[in-house]
Each structure stands twice: as structure tokens, then as C-alpha cells.
Amino acid sequence: MELKWVYCCPVLIRYTDVKGPKNAMLWSFLCFMYVRIEPEYEHDIGLYEHELEHCKQNVRSLFLHPLLYIFCKRYRLWCEVKAYALQVNVYVYASETERIQMINLFSTYISEWYKLNITFLEARTALRDELDEY
Ligand SMILES: [Zn+2]
Q1: What is the whole-number distance in angstroms between the Cα of residue 68 and the centre of ligand 1?
Q2: How far does residue 51's CA lie from ligand 1's centre (Å)?
């Protein structure tokens, strides 16, 4: 367990398979942000930064993030593209091919995991557009 500060707000980070607390969204509403990372990913700095980005989005949205994220697909896409772009940039790659493979993997996740109704190509275009901004 780790306590991290995002802007001036506490984030509780737990490395566990257990999915609690059950009301993680409620905790977010109450300003105490919670991140659960499965133990096998404890040293995955990219995933860590990805999840912290969502906490920052939560603070920047004045804690409307959970509501916006659930009910607005465009916002959810924007959040995930930002977080995955950050994650792409955190990792160190042996080659440009490896980096492209990571972008493709995350584009698959974006198109399949978040009920966004977008294709792989649309996800990859959004992610690459975001990466070009850096
Ligand atoms: Zn995410």
C-alpha cells in the first residue's frame, strides 16, 4: 500500500488481486482516490503512470471524472488516449518496431476494453495523434 499525492489530493495505491474497496467510484467522489494494481504489475511504471493520470484527470475535472467517464464516451476515449499515450512514452524500447507494437497493443485495448464502439484503426489514429503532440 502506498499513499501518493496528486496535486494536493491523496491517492491510495494498493497492489492486490482483491478488488476492494467495493465502492471505489464512491471513494473517488469523496476525494480520496484509489488505484488498485495487481501484484504482477507492481513494477510496471507505465501502468502506474497511466493510473495516476486518471487521478490527475479526476482532480482537474473537479471530481466529476467518474460521472463523465461513465456516461460520456468521448470523455472516456479522451482520458484513455491521454493515459495510454503517457504510458507509451514512459517505457524504454529496444527499437522503434517494439514501440509501434506497444502502440498497436494499446490501440487494441482502447478499441476493445472501454465500450467505446470504435475500431482498432480509429483507436490507433487517436493514440498516434496524441503522441505526436508530445
Ligand atoms: Zn485507463
Answers
A1: 14
A2: 6
